[in-house]
Amino acid sequence: RCDALIFDLDGVLTDTAETHYRAWRRLADEIGVPFARADNERMKGVDRMASLDILLQRASRDYPPAERLALAARKNEYYVQDIGGITPDRLFDGVHALLADARRRGLKLAVASASRNAALLLRNLGIADKFDHVVDAAHLSRAKPDPEIFLAAAHALGVSPAVCIGIEDSLAGIAAIHAAGMSAIGVGDAGVLSPADAVVPDIAHLRLSDFVIP
Ligand code: B16
Ligand code: MG
Fold first, then answer.
1. Which domain of life is it from (predicted)?
2. What are the pLDDT digits (tens) for 69-123?
3. ipTM
């Protein structure tokens, strides 16, 4: 049985996983720290300060806490500059159809994004009012893979985690969904996301009839 869908945002509903990558890449280049796509894979779904910790693992010197905060703020400036200009055409194909199908089936819908910029991004994508609840990452204390964010979404929707399906593009997110006692659909590379209960290559390939009894 499934009563609710809980969506990750970056990398699931739009291609901002790439936007995050470019912002980190720019920062890494500026401070002379090596940074490759493989490093970025580990940062997906991971919150801002923990992402910076991953980036600085390859730094040749220590960065004290105040400097870390300044670097994270700089990356966020680059990211916000980029998403400030995002318009609804940046929504992945199939999102509107999927949300409409979910509504027809009576499912509740939430967004569980680790991003503190999620509200701005959802507004710019024109889908802010499509969800019953958007978890505010600023009110959380534990990042994915901790289940807190998915449990908060289920709680706000008034449903048991057991009847929720979480939809994620990151390994940290899939681990968080499972730790919350939910089923996980991965969006992306089936080899990378093998812990998920099912994997689709992109959101346009997600057919609710495969997962939800009509
Ligand atoms: P911000 P998601 C996550 O969003 C991103 O995957 C991750 O790369 C990013 O570091 C994190 O949000 C925090 O974002 O710096 O904007 O607060 O995938 O959980 O929607
Ligand atoms: Mg994501």
1. Bacteria
2. 999 999 999 999 999 999 999 999 999 999 999 999 999 999 999 999 999 999 9
3. 0.92
Which residue out of 8, 39, 47, 169 is catalytically annotated?
8
Measured from the Cα of 114, ligand 1's closest atom is 19
Q: Distance, CA 115 to ligand 1 centroid (Å)?
A: 4
3-state secondary structure the chain: CCCEEEECCECCCECHHHHHHHHHHHHHHHHCCCCCHHHHHHHCCCCHHHHHHHHHCCCCCCCCHHHHHHHHHHHHHHHHHHHHCCCHHHECCCHHHHHHHHHHCCCEEEECCCCCCHHHHHHHHCCHHHCCEECCHHHCCCCCCCCHHHHHHHHHHCCCHHHEEEEECCHHHHHHHHHCCCEEEEECCCCCCCCCCEEECCHHHCCHHHCCCC
